[in-house]
Structures are given as structure tokens and as C-alpha cells.
Design a protein that fits this description.
It contains 3 helices and 12 strands; from the N terminus they run E-E-E-E-E-H-E-H-E-E-E-E-E-E-H. By secondary structure, it is mainly beta. A 6-stranded antiparallel barrel has the order 1-2-5-4-3-6. It has a 6-stranded mixed sheet with strand order 10-9-8-7-12-11.
Amino acid sequence: MEQFHPIGYIQKAHALKGELKLYVEPYIMDFLSKIKVVYIEQKGTPIPYMVQRLQAIPQGAILQVEESKDKNTADTLKGCSVSVEVAAVRGLKAAIEAQLFFIEGYKAYNGKTFLGVVESIEELPQQKIAQVRMSEHLLPIALHPDQIADINRRSKSIYFELPEGYVEAFLE
């Protein structure tokens, strides 16, 4: 698992005192009160910022960091990705794993039949979709508990139980 995990991004400056309005991934909302340091990516480098205030609001959060004292400073951070150190936030590792992001790069099987490699995970409003690379095709597979038979972390494999004819329908 990565040392840092993205929790969202800075949408815009909020008010005049250097506060930042964040888009925050929904599964992160329960952890806001536990976050003491955020890493704001600037020019490809995560820069640590001490959190003074991180408060949930509808559709996101308001973040105040020590280094941002005015609107001009906050404006320079617009659009930047915000991450946290996974080990520093109790319970976050389990929440991340529950999101199944870690299966990118895993070998995907339908029963015992090799399908391909999980290329990416897409988060749609109602569910997550694994995009499995099958030679020149991408096969979308809903990451629903009814379709996941097993995940083997040691062999980096995920086993699905897909409806009969599902794979063939996408290959035509």
C-alpha cells in the first residue's frame, strides 16, 4: 500500500482568511477529525501542511492550514491534490482497502479462466467498476460482492463469478 493516499483536491479559496474548500472522497468523511497533517501536491511533490481546522460541509470540507493566512495564498493552491499519510490516520488503511483500489494490477479471473489484468478502478455514483485489459479490449466488471468470489493478495489475483455469456458479449 502506498505511504500517501489522496483524499480529494482543493476546489477554491473559501472566505478571506486562507481557508480552502475541498472536494473530499466520500469514504474519507468519517476520518476528517483524525487528520492532523495533509500533503498538498505542488509541482509533483507532496508538501506537508499542519491542519488547524478540517470541517465537513455538504459536498466536501473546509480546510485551514497554518501556512495559508489569506485568500491570495489559498488561491495559489486551487486544483492541487490533497493526500494524507495512511499510517498517521487510525482506521484509514482498512477503509482504503474496502474501496478495492489496491486491486489495480491484479490478475483477473472468471472462475478459473484468466481474463486479463485490472488496469484501473472507476468510481461511478452507484458502484465501482474494474476495467480489465483483455488484449485489445477493456472489460468493465462491477465490483459487487455478489460477483467477487475471492481476492488473493499473495498472488495478486481477483476471482470473479460473472454471469454466463457476460465476457463473450463484450468481445463481440
